[in-house]
Write a structure and sequence with these properties.
- The structure is a homodimer.
- Chain A contains 13 helices and 12 strands.
- By secondary structure, the first copy, chain A, is of the alpha/beta class.
- In chain A, the strands form 2 sheets. Chain A has a 6-stranded mixed sheet with strand order 3-2-1-4-5-6, with helices on both faces. A 6-stranded mixed sheet of chain A has the order 8-10-9-7-11-12.
- In chain A, α1 packs antiparallel against α3 and α6 runs parallel beside α11.
- The longest helix of chain A has 18 residues.
- Chain A is globular, with a radius of gyration of 21 Å.
- The two termini of chain A are about 15 Å apart.
- The relative contact order of chain A is 0.14.
- Chains A and B meet through α2, α7, β12 and α13 of A and α2, α7, β12 and α13 of B.
- β12 of chain A pairs antiparallel with β12 of chain B.
Chain lengths: ~350, ~350
């Protein structure tokens, strides 16, 4: 058996789900993959940090987090700055789950850079580093003979990146269309059931789908950064969220919802990208889609992307009922794929 | 560069598309994968066989096939029996595209067995060997340090097998639901547009989707063998098509089509499998699905399967606009995946 130590950045819903998934899957990982994973360092924004080279269990971490004091689990002295903390963790993997920054991708980029430079693999659920530093971090990883993967950054644990990297050699992506933002999809659905925009937002906030400031979702930034990530990585053309032609869902009112219903259609925030003559055009726009479109039945927080490639005219990947567990699985899958291919 | 020779069994639409795809992708394969592929043997049911160790181009093969005489391309004496032919080809890969036999899986099983025993890898678009000899052929491959893969056997080139094998380590499949037979899906759609059952069948035959005897599709055998293949390989429980609770689409008449339309629903031939307490229940049955189901918008010859796994509650794979090219790509992807993982 090979034992690997993990430095976990962020201990929100995803970080907790990841710690629990590792324990739930421990027997399977040992039996099928001959590996054991152990979290030996956790850093949080405001609940303290811990390094414990004996390993930190999910239960202990959750309890300490609830008391606002992860530092109580630490057996080592903790560096003040994150670069020092990551280096001091001496882990094999960095698992990055800090909140996204749409404009800069920081501080996640710095975390990943520190890990790769210190000889760790880095896996991330954060879109920021993918759109703002994909090439830099991938080259840095190669230089250090390590890997940087980020399956969970788009569509949680659904294999949108790995299916092309691992399973579909030789396929060239020419474009895609999809629904990539769960929050707006849920908001529109609530409005279809008669809720006002504000009530829909309040509901989405109450179940943890919308943030306190929901503008990142509503104005299409989250969708745009996901489009940019897919284009950058899968189509090989660096694209920033600002370059995506972007309209959010603020203009969709009860009359428009009604108009769609009468026509047997639904409003959806549709993400698109196309490669034409070597140039990318990308957009995020509300569209009325008919029931004959695969986008029509993407309900609630589900998501779907349909790729057009030179060898498969239409390949769709659908994710339904995602949650923090799903994102956590994407992180674990990245780690196992790294170990598989070395 | 590594050069690999291919023995191709079957030169129907898929075999031809495969030969053309190899030539279309030759530059890419050389540049990105440092490999070259060459077809050095072709066997057909009734258009002769050829072995030519200098390589047979797609153009030459198609021309010779049209004249009903592949043997004119042969530079070697040709064995009468297929076991001898495959062995004499001295190829690195067997590519199997012979027609399916639902009940026995032959002669494809024998072709693949001969290839593996002679030290070749085998890739197949044929469902028969998968449901009737998966374990036997996989063990034989392991014994000979070769691989047996069959991505194109279900949903053409869409990565239903490879996504779990290559991209989703540690995921356990608990069940699935989908539309796996293109022909019946197209027939129902034609009936929705007002065609009679017989007219719909005639149309499907005219575009090459239905066979002269379309009962394999209409009575649900093709769907059942695909369900059996997915269960056998992905859920690890050997299942024969005969064990799938199967009803075809013969009972669906104009009144039922109308009834569904009034209810805002569509008839679909729905494939299902569930694992409960270690036991599999599997079915192929017509169902009226509502527009809120992802199955509703599966149009024409498209197909969709939604898996329920322990780590991803709903992961769907959608294929739209498939054709012989798509199946051919699945064969090539299998070959590249074999070379990647050795």
């Amino acid at each position: 058996m090979n034992q690997y130590d993990i430095c976990l950045i962020g201990f929100g819903n995803v970080g907790k789900a990841f710690a629990e998934l590792l324990e739930k899957k421990a027997d399977h990982l040992l039996k099928e993959h001959s590996v054991g994973f152990r979290i030996t360092a956790i850093a949080t924004g405001s609940h303290g940090n811990a390094i414990n080279l004996q390993g930190i269990t999910a239960t202990a971490a959750i309890a300490a987090y609830q008391h606002g004091d992860l530092a109580s689990l630490s057996t080592e002295s903790i560096e003040d700055d994150m670069v020092g903390f990551i280096r001091a963790s001496r882990a094999d993997f960095l698992v990055e789950t800090s909140p996204v920054d749409y404009q800069t991708g920081q501080p996640a980029i710095m975390h990943i850079q520190s890990a790769l430079s210190a000889g760790m693999h880095a896996v991330s659920a954060n879109k920021g580093p993918v759109v703002h530093a994909y090439q830099f971090l991938t080259e840095l990883a190669e230089k250090n003979r390590r890997r940087f993967l980020f399956e969970s950054a788009v569509m949680d644990g659904a294999p949108v990146f790995s299916v092309f990297r691992e399973a579909l050699p030789g396929a060239k992506i020419l474009g895609f269309e999809g629904i990539l933002n769960s929050c707006t999809n849920l908001l529109i659905e609530k409005m279809e059931s008669g809720a006002s925009f504000d009530d829909a937002v309040a509901y989405a906030q109450s179940i943890g789908i919308a943030e306190t400031d929901p503008s990142g979702d509503i104005d299409g930034w989250d969708a745009a950064i996901k489009v940019a990530a897919l284009v950058t990585v899968l189509m090989g053309v660096p694209l920033k969220p600002q370059q995506v032609d972007r309209t959010g869902i603020r203009a969709i009112g009860p009359d428009m919802i009604e108009q769609a219903k009468v026509a047997g259609k639904r409003w959806k925030l549709v993400c698109k990208a196309e490669l034409n003559d070597g140039k990318i055009s990308a957009s995020v726009q509300p569209e009325m889609v008919p029931s004959t479109s695969p986008l029509f039945a993407v309900n609630g927080t589900s998501s779907l992307v349909v790729f057009r490639t030179d060898v498969l005219p239409g390949l769709g990947i659908l994710e339904s009922n995602p949650g923090p567990d799903t994102t956590a699985y994407g992180l674990l899958a990245d780690m196992l794929n790294i170990l598989k291919t070395g």
